[in-house]
Amino acid sequence: MSNLPKIAWIGLGIMGSPMSENLIKAGYSVTGFTLEQDKLDRLTAAGGTSAASIAEAVKDADVIITMVPASPQVEAISYGPDGILENARQGALIVDMSSITPQTSVDLAKNAKEKGIRVIDAPVSGGEAGAIEAVLSIMVGGEKADFDEALPILEALGKTIVLCGPHGSGQTVKAANQLIVAVNIQACAEAVVFLEKSGVDLVAALDVLNGGLAGSTVLTRKKDNFLNRDFKPGFRIDLHHKDMGIVTDAARNVGAALPVGAVVAQLVASLRAQGDGGLDHSALLRAVERLSGQQV
Ligand code: NAD
Q: Atom 40 (ligand 1): residue with closest C-alpha?
């Protein structure tokens, strides 16, 4: 028997599936629950155990990792008679890796504490590729002792793992991350359309741009999406729309002006309204193409 903490994993989507598999590879026992049967089958095939409910997944767990789309889903899996707080054992540690509003994280930590359950917020950056390669950046909010306890687990999932401050701080930093990523993708998309319309060799151009000050992880990771018009997610526009809402709202609350972020938030919203919400966020290129009179 391994001495490693027993893990429950709730939310086995684009990110949760490869991340939970990395824990299994690192020797952890993982019991998972998610809404899609094929994702549960994938977990079992990777050496994990599938549970029939949240209650079943969390009842014996030392650490409960959650990776669901947004605040409403975190609340749905956490609260109520079938939720994590009613069914986890006292002393368990919840590591919520979903990207949600900082306030939802603060409230969850407070409500969990009343049940003797600890929480850290630990959203991630690095995308699906970063999840598969276990090189995510993980931004944590919560108590130092809980961060230290979770660290060996997080080290099996990511490379840059930082405690940013009290509960909710991880989410605030993640909101800033999403602002930077969206603006960067938008700038890359505008450059792509400009370069193409100018008749420049796009492969050569993106290559040399990425070697200079204009280079970025966004350009490295999304270059092929732009070149091949491959917008299979990845990170869905729907989720980035949610994140632009989080950062816009959080910035208003502290009196920070985000003029460029506000414009890009509108462009993301517009792309979604045109039916592209299920595409990868590199599909911001489609919006620029439409604005530039190209048929897409
Ligand atoms: P996804 O939609 O692929 O997966 C979400 C999973 O949550 C699904 O498998 C679904 O079954 C599960 N779920 C939803 N409600 C549930 C419930 N009530 N009970 C049990 N399971 C439930 O989403 P994703 O792309 O994996 O993103 C997850 C989170 O990670 C989001 O907050 C997202 O913003 C963030 N994130 C995603 C990426 C990315 O590149 N995809 C990168 C960084 C952060």
A: 127
